[in-house]
């Protein structure tokens, strides 16, 4: 099931982690237009994609509704705002991606629009459209230079590493888009591939944003893989930096990020309120409720659409609201 979120849905675009807009107290806003993904990566922290173990519902946000909310939030946050189009799924599955990029670039106060992608749906024609729309940066997910391992990590048989490399080379050589390679280092799985990816990035003069594998309760878990500590992670990054003479560790300021005032938290943790049910939630036995112009994920809730439910807020970090029925 795919639920279309527009103004008529009555669902605000602040409050949820799986779609809408997320503000973590910096000048960077995460914009999530869809939950849909075309891959089934074996390490995925959100378990998105086809045949998900946990999710049988997806959401797609109407582009004008998303831009309407984005304008209001940017106005509140101030100048120098960075927009990152990311997703619990894959942003390039969003049908109005070009309109979203064009609209975001036009917002007064926005200085950069970037996008996460696994690259599998990109073509040269689509990249040209994305570039013309004004996209500034792509954070490209690629986790191996070995075709078989890359396919295994993606969880799908159609993953074609040669095509991915061709797209990366095209973006790097034939567009103005700033391109970063952003592999996830998965211990005991692709340890030997990270140096290969560093060497590949150097041939194209690309920056790297190596990510640490994290274990999530509802994410996919490769057998035999345990997360390493941040201490060990950064120690290895420093060793790679020295060995390959490349920068791998960046401070927030070096990538244009800075602290900014947060969107006000309008509901306190522990507060008891009444929410109106607007849609089923992303997980089973969840619902999306609305109160005080915020969307709220309500656990253990099977109430019908339109019903009023009394809930207790158990989390409100980064204006992401989670509640339980009273």
Secondary-structure content class = alpha/beta
Q: What is the helix tally?
A: 7
Q: List unreliable stretches of 5+ residues.
A: none
The total of beta strands comes to 16
> Mean pLDDT, as a whole number?
95
Strand residues, percent: 15-25%
Instruction: Write the H/E string, N to C.
Output: EEEEHEHEHEHHEEHEEHEEEEE
- What is the approximate shape? globular
Describe this structure in words.
With 326 residues, the chain is of the alpha/beta class. The protein contains 7 helices and 16 strands. Helix 1 packs parallel to helix 2. It is globular. The model has no long low-confidence stretch (mean pLDDT 95).
Describe the structure in brief.
With 326 residues, the protein is of the alpha/beta class. The protein has helices at 63-77, 97-106, 124-133, 147-154, 161-174, 193-203, 230-244; strands spanning 2-5, 20-23, 28-32, 58-61, 81-85, 110-117, 137-140, 178-181, 184-185, 207-208, 211-212, 272-280, 286-291, 294-299, 308-315, 322-325.
């Amino acid at each position: 099931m795919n639920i279309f979120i527009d103004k008529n849905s009555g669902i605000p675009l602040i409050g949820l982690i799986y779609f809408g807009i997320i503000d973590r107290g910096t000048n960077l806003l995460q914009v999530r237009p869809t939950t849909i993904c075309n891959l089934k990566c074996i390490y995925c922290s959100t378990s998105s994609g086809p045949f998900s173990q946990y999710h049988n519902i997806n959401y797609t946000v109407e582009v004008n509704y998303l831009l309407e909310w984005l304008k209001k939030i940017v106005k509140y946050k101030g100048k120098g705002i960075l927009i990152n189009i990311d997703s619990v799924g894959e942003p390039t599955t969003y049908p109005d991606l070009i309109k979203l990029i064009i609209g975001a670039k036009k917002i007064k106060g926005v200085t950069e629009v970037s996008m996460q992608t696994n690259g599998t749906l990109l073509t040269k024609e689509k990249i040209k459209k994305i570039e013309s729309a004004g996209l500034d940066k792509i954070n490209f997910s690629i986790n191996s230079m070995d075709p078989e391992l890359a396919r295994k990590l993606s969880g799908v048989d159609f993953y074609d590493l040669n095509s991915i490399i061709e797209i990366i080379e095209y973006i790097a050589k034939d567009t103005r888009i700033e391109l970063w390679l952003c592999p996830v280092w998965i211990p005991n799985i692709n340890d030997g591939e990270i140096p290969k990816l560093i060497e590949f990035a150097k041939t194209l003069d690309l920056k790297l944003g190596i990510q640490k594998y994290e274990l999530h309760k509802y994410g996919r878990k490769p057998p035999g893989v345990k997360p390493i500590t941040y201490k060990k992670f950064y120690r290895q990054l420093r060793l790679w930096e020295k060995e390959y003479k490349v920068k791998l560790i960046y401070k927030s300021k070096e990538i244009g990020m800075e602290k900014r005032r947060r969107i006000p938290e309008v509901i306190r943790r522990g507060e008891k309120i009444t929410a109106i049910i607007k849609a089923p939630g992303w997980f089973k036995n969840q619902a999306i409720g609305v109160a005080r112009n915020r969307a709220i994920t309500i656990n253990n809730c099977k109430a019908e659409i339109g019903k009023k439910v009394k809930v207790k807020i158990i989390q409100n970090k980064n204006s992401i609201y989670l509640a339980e029925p009273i």
